[in-house]
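2024-03-11 09:14:02 INFO worker-7 job=invfold-0412 stage=load source=structure_tokens
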């Protein structure tokens, strides 16, 4: 990816704005505003993807290649974007994806994100690696639309306690991310010397025992160490035992994995390539969605993240089988630029764009969004 890989070098970041700027018309308009208000390291961490960033770019290109077809004289009166997920009603199909260390973007971090989500009526999925404790975020949000994202740790007792804390704090679903047992190589970060700055930590992991020192004989701390504690299918029963909350698996790309997860008892799946941050040259999430939807056959809700920037993207994802989408970088850029008002504004923009797209494609509600919204439905499966 071209361009300056060290934005803001030699200049202090600008302070965040106290309101959503009137000149912002699209969620991508927040990106340059955020860049001016983040350090070079924070920008590299949030905006960068794995290695050559092929998947990062593909996530957008694949959405853009799906052509829509407008419909005239359709009766879309009394339309709405409401849905139900795991027994709770949502006014529109957008949630905030789990993103680590949001204090990199704004001093109020996850608290501001929670306030913005609550103000806009959106759900929020809090990261295990949040820079604010899950209890403090729940107290700030005062919402029943909070989900907790879990990275299972080698210390299983600590992991179980973490899930119990989330349940006690009122989180209503558990999202287990499984596509990142190790971090991807994100080349932007070493190029700017990124390190987690002092004062920012994974607040939920305080008190966790450090990883045991590698003592294997392969000569590789990765293959002989970190991956030795990675979860496998044999651990699914243990995962299921952690909670009575709805259990979603995040990071599903292969249809075979989707089918197996549902057969074992997953309550939902999130089709995701981790925003292009783990393994490069994966397909775009929107490309992986149709075969997974065909495999799952509606047995559990499918959600999708990675690459969503427009209301038309949400429409396309729903048409191809998603119940809802999650957004990551867009709300983080809104957060960096303008705190909680920026987060709420990003959500409001996407909701308004979705409603316009539904009206112009003749869809009164989410159930009416099918493959018929595409210019050539045969390109995307049977309508």
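2024-03-11 09:14:09 INFO worker-7 stage=emit residues=383
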């Amino acid at each position: 990816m071209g361009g300056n890989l060290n934005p803001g070098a030699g200049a202090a970041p600008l302070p965040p704005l106290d309101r959503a700027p009137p000149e912002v018309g699209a969620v991508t308009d927040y990106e340059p505003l955020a860049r001016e208000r983040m350090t070079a390291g924070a920008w590299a961490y949030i905006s960068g993807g794995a290695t050559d960033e092929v998947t990062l770019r593909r996530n957008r290109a694949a959405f853009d290649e799906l052509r829509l077809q407008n419909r005239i004289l359709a009766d879309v009166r009394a339309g709405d974007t409401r849905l139900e997920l795991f027994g709770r009603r949502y006014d529109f199909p957008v949630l905030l994806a789990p993103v680590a260390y949001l204090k990199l973007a704004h001093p109020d971090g996850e608290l501001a994100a929670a306030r913005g989500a609550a103000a806009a009526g959106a759900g929020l999925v809090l990261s295990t690696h949040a820079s604010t404790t899950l209890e403090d975020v729940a107290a700030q949000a005062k919402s029943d639309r909070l989900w907790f994202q879990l990275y299972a740790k080698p210390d299983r007792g600590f992991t179980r306690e973490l899930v119990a804390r989330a349940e006690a704090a009122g989180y209503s679903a558990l999202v287990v991310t499984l596509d990142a047992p190790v971090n991807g190589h994100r080349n932007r970060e070493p190029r700017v010397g990124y390190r987690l700055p002092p004062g920012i930590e994974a607040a939920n992991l305080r008190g966790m025992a450090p990883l045991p020192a590698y003592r294997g004989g392969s000569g590789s701390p990765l293959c002989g160490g970190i991956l030795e504690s990675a979860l496998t299918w044999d651990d699914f029963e243990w995962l299921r035992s952690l909670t009575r909350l709805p259990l979603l698996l995040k990071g599903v790309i292969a249809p075979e994995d989707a089918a197996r997860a549902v057969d074992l008892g997953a309550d939902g799946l999130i089709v995701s390539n981790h925003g292009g941050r783990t393994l490069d040259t994966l397909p775009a999430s929107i490309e992986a969605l149709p075969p997974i939807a065909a495999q799952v056959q509606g047995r559990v809700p499918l959600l999708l993240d990675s690459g969503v920037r427009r209301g038309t993207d949400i429409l396309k994802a729903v048409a191809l089988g998603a119940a809802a989408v999650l957004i990551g970088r867009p709300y983080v850029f809104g957060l960096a630029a303008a705190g909680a008002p920026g987060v709420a504004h990003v959500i409001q923009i996407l909701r308004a764009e979705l409603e316009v797209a539904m009206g112009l494609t003749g869809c009164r509600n989410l159930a009416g969004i099918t493959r018929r919204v595409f210019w050539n439905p045969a390109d995307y499966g049977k309508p």
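2024-03-11 09:14:09 INFO worker-7 stage=report msg="The first strand starts at residue 83 and ends at 85."
2024-03-11 09:14:10 INFO worker-7 job finished
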